[in-house]
Structure formats: C-alpha cells, structure tokens
Amino acid sequence: MTMKFKFLAASSSLVLLLLIFFMAGCQQEDQVTPGSKLTDRAQPTCTANNPTWSNNAACAGQDLTVTVCFNATCGEAQIQYESAPGVWTQLAHENPLTGSCLTITPIVAAGIGTYNFRTQYQSSGSGCNFCAVQWEGSNQNPNSYSSVTVVACDEEVCYGPAETGWSNGPEYAEGRQWATYTAVGSFPATLYASQTSVAGTVSYAGGMITITLAAGWEFANVSENVKIQAYSVAPTTEPTPGLFDNKTTAAIGSSPYSVAVAAGNYYGVHVDLVPIIECP
Questions:
Q1: Phi, psi at residue 15, to the nearest 5°?
Q2: CATH class of the region 52-150
Q3: What is the pLDDT of residues 12-50, one digit of tens each?
Q4: What is the Cα 163 distance to its own chain's centre?
Q5: Is 40 exposed, middle or buried (0-12, 13-18, 19+ CB in 10 A)?
Q6: pLDDT by residue (tens digit) across 205-248?
Q7: Which residues make up the CATH 2.60.40.10 domain(s) of the chain?
C-alpha cells in the first residue's frame, strides 16, 4: 500500500508539472526549440494606418490635384486613377513614403464629371510596421477609395471703388457740384459715372424710370443705391439725394431696373455704381 501511494503521489506531481509547463508555454509569443533557439517570432500588432483624402476643389477647366495622407511615416504607397470604367492607371508612387502624404500629378483642365481614385499602402524597411491598406481582397479599406466631382463654377467677379452716377442733362447748380437732371423729352439719357464714364442709359415711359447698365458696370452693393426725384419745374439748387422721394435698392445683376415714379417734367436720377475690374 505504501509503494502504491508513493507512486500515485509521484504521478500526480508529474501531471501538475506538465500542466504548469504547458500553460506557461501557451503564454509565450515566441516558439523555442529544446536547445533554446528561436524558431518563430510572433509578429507585433501593426500601427493603425487610416488614409485621408483631400483635393483642390477644382472647377471645370482647372487642373485637379488629389492628395492622400497616411498615419505612416515609412513604407510604400501609390495612387491610381480610373481612366476608363474598370481601367486603373497609376499616377503616383513613392517608396519609401516621405512626409506621410502622396499627391498625384494634376489632371490638367479637368472636365465636368466624377473622377475615381484609389490608394494602396504596405510597410517596408526596417522598423516599419504600419497596417497595410489594400483596395481589394479581405483587407480592403473603404477609405482606400475616393471620388471627386468637378462642376462648372461661377467665375469670380471683382469690383472697383463705388462711383456716383447721374442721368445726363443740365447741372442742378452750375459750377457748384456735379449733379444733373433730365427733362422728360430728353429720355433716353446717358447714365454717367463720375461725370465722364458711360455706365448705361436711363429711359422713361408710362410713369416708369428704367436704368439699364452698360457692360462693365454693376449696382453698388449698398442700401438705397437708386434715388429718383420728380420736378414740375427745372431745379436750380444743389440736390440732396438722401431726401429724394423715390429711394430703392437694386440688387446686383438686376439690370435693367425699373422704378415707378410720380408725374413730372424733369427727373433727377442718382445711382450708386461700381465698375467691374479684373480680379487680382
């Protein structure tokens, strides 16, 4: 009985030691041979690497530039462009990747439409362990694709300093200040800006004054930019446009602009104008 008990105790101890050794081995990341030689090292977890896209918001006819950036500061990356349905053309490639971002050679004078791009990344080089970005297969990343829509944009319009405009005719008070009025029989009359620049025409019909601007001119973007006063007799004193009976605001782009006016034999038509100039 004593020998049997000792044998069972020894067997139990051996099983416990084997179990402890087995559990310890499961916790190791590396596989080691009986001679303590490293045979297979477990790969460390890769660093997250989510691509982000940007573009220069090109309008139709402008060059389109697209950039993709990664969290990675090393490795290899490329951008491809869908030049035809299902046909992808490489536009940019860097190995090693520098500065974390990759920019395509511009698509010159892009037309209206949608342009599709995709990117792919893989780690390369010693110590580079960022997660791969693939455009196909089980590791596909939805951010590996980008679509850019190019549309026709309104051209930028720039304006010069505001100028005062008056319908042509005699001066209110000759020699005192530049301000003119127009007799009913003299319509249509030229609309002058700053006394000498032709900015349009002013016409009168059926109790309505209509202002039609010439090319290169626009209503100033201010309140009450059109002021009109009717007279039964010709005025002889300097005017105060801010006190005219008709004060309205013509929006940019609203030429020709019409205003209902009181009956009169003469009209003072004052307009705040801006010249259209080349943008700097």
A1: -60, -40
A2: mainly beta
A3: 444 444 444 444 444 444 444 454 444 445 556 888 888
A4: 32
A5: exposed
A6: 989 999 999 999 999 999 999 999 999 999 999 999 999 999 99
A7: 52-150
